[in-house]
Each structure stands twice: as C-alpha cells, then as structure tokens.
Amino acid sequence: MAFFSKGLEPMIYLDNSATTKPRKEVMDTFVKANEAFYANPASLHGMGVEAERLLTGARQQIGKLLLTEAENIYFTSGGTESNNMAIFGIARANKKRGRHVMTSVIEHPSILESFKQLEREGFEVDYLSVNRNGQVSLQELESKLRQDTILVSIMHVNNEIGTIQPIAEIAEVIHSHSRAYFHSDCVQSFGKLPVNFEGVGPDAITVSGHKINGLKGTGLLAFRHKIPFEPLLFGGGQESGMRSGTVSVPNAASLAKAMRLSVEENRSSNFQKWKKELISFFSHYEFIRIITPYESAPHILSISFRGIKGEVLVNALERQNIYVSTSSACSSRNTKTSHVIGAIHMEDEFVNGVIRISFGLYTTDDDIEDFKSAFLQAISIIKGEHL
Ligand SMILES: Cc1ncc(COP(=O)(O)O)c(C=O)c1O
Known about the structure:
The chain has helices at 24-36, 46-66, 79-93, 109-120, 138-144, 167-177, 249-264, 268-282, 310-318, 329-332, 339-343, 365-383; strands at 3-4, 10-13, 73-76, 100-104, 124-128, 149-153, 181-185, 204-208, 219-223, 288-290, 300-305, 322-323, 354-358. By secondary structure, it is α/β, with parallel strands linked by helices. InterPro entries: Aminotrans_V_dom, Cysteine_dSase, PyrdxlP-dep_Trfase, PyrdxlP-dep_Trfase_major, PyrdxlP-dep_Trfase_small.
C-alpha cells in the first residue's frame, strides 16, 4: 500500500522487521482505554476496578492465544525489557543451582548484552555457533549442557536473516539433558508462525507489540508455568511483584488487540508468495546472493550484493520512496559488519552489501512490482550499466 512520506509522495514501506505501522483498531483501543479507563487499576474505587477488569480481560485474551494461564503473562515496555527481565530474572533467581548459562551468537543485542552483563556478574556463558543458514546445532547444544546449566535463551526467528530455530527440538534437548529453563525471543515470529505453549517448547517467551502492528512501548514476557524468578524493577509490587510500576491498561489492551488480530489475520501466505517472487527475480543476477535460508520466516528476505554497499542501495531506493534497511535497524547506523552476517561466514566480497526487505500487513502486490522496477533503476544508476 502506498503510504505518504513527509513530502506527500507515495512511499513503499518494506522495513517491517524494524517496526510496523500500528493498526487503526489498535489505536482506537488505545484511545478509548485512555478516555474511559485511565484510573489506576490498583485503586480500590469503582474506576480502578473497571480499569482492573479491562486489564484482566487483556491478560486472559493473551493467555488464550498463548495457551497459558492469564497470571503467567507480565506486561512490559517491549521486547528489550522482556528479554532483559527473562535473562536476569531467571539467572539471578536460580544461581544457587548453578552459574552456567547459554545463548547463541546471533541473538538480538537485548539478549547478547544481557548475557555479557551476566558474565560480569560471575556467570559462565557459552555462546552456541550457527551454520551458514544461521541455525544452532542440537549436538553442540547437548554437548554444552551441564549439571549446573540454569538457563538457555535461543531466539525463534532471527531478525536480520529470517532463520527459524527448531525450538521444539531445542526444548526437548534442554529438558531431557539438564534442569535448565529455556527462554525464547519470539519478537519476530509471533503473528507469522505458530507461537504458543502447546506441546514441547520454551518455558518463557518474549513478544513485542510494535512488530505486529501494535504500539511501540508495548510487550510482554509469558511463562508456561511459574518458575523461580527475581524481578528487575522493585516498587509497588504490581504484576504480582514481578514488574513494579503502574500498569498501563491502554498499552495492555492495545497489545491484546494487536496480538489477536495478527493471529486471526495472518498474512504469511502473501509474504511467502512475495518472498518466492523476489528470490526468483534476484536469482537472475550473478552479483546477488540470497542470504535468507530456503526454509525461513515468511516476512524477511535478506540479500547481498558483490561490489555494492548495502547503504548505497538503501539510499538509492529511498530516492524512489522505497524503504528497506541494511541488515538490521539496530546495527544499520553502525558501520561495523553485523554480528549475524559475521556468524554465518559469508564470502568477504558480499559482507558489506547486505539489505533486508521485510513485508507487513500493508504490503501489496503492486508494492512488489514497484519495488522491482525501482530496484533495477537503482542498480543501473549505481553500476552505470543497463541491466
Ligand atoms: C528479535 C528481536 N528481539 C528483540 C527486539 C527488541 O524489541 P523492542 O524494540 O520491542 O525493544 C527486536 C527489535 O528489533 C527484535 O527484532
């Protein structure tokens, strides 16, 4: 869908892994909740009780979607906070049982930086390597699990290249070989792949609202069951003492709405179709490598160019009002090579040419057609030749 950028030029937004445009229904819920339910849900008076009722409703709706009890859902300010909360909360509360923890080398910085902090606090951290598709090895995982391993955190879908980790198998290995808890960052998978606590899987998961057409500043940490846990924030004891601070009822209600609609109106088959179409389009050019593995998240397509820097192409496309990013929004202002691209050992000549195209709710067939023509024009200008 052609949105309008500042200059009222139609634009095509293909950076949905970085963030998404909020749905109108979600914004309506947020506004209505602020207008009618602004009381503190902890207040004893009638308005507080009404706000508390809306909050409980949101928690129950999310509990049904994730197949866990409502009281296992904790509202946060987003993916970063939920990831920090999970890692520090589980590691610190279980350190009497052991000080060994594990993650993978291609996690989001909100996970990697938290593990680095755990190292500074005296925990021993193992970082699992990945293959050229970005997948961890179950054998390596099994070989590194120990009696004193208390936590493993492995993301479901990688935000830069779209790799899907086999989280059910990972959970099976962790739970049959150790007493460690398993947390998974599901920020990029929720709403695109099935994410819930049915069957074998993680003990805790992270979801962020703004990746699913919800609002920035909304998210949650959800548990399968109660586990020993230490809060990060202390204060009034809200969220059963797990996350103090007045709960934003409008944020919680809008997150529940965004989550429900993203499951009910899942667009993955469209994303899959566009991904295939673009892969076949790019495969005509020998100077382009498809990085995203064949079996990967439907909404992310990561490619690389020999001899063209990713940011040069991003800028050339932007001049035609098409918005994509280099490997990830977090690292794209960083001139360093992304840690994910480094970890999958791409050929040197392709390392600096990465761009990520990511589809969303408002992407259309026309956007993909327009992207292709704009892309050809951008490349011919950059390479100074006719393709
Ligand atoms: C995989 C992954 N985890 C965590 C985050 C952080 O989420 P938030 O922006 O809600 O803090 C992101 C956002 O880029 C992400 O892609």
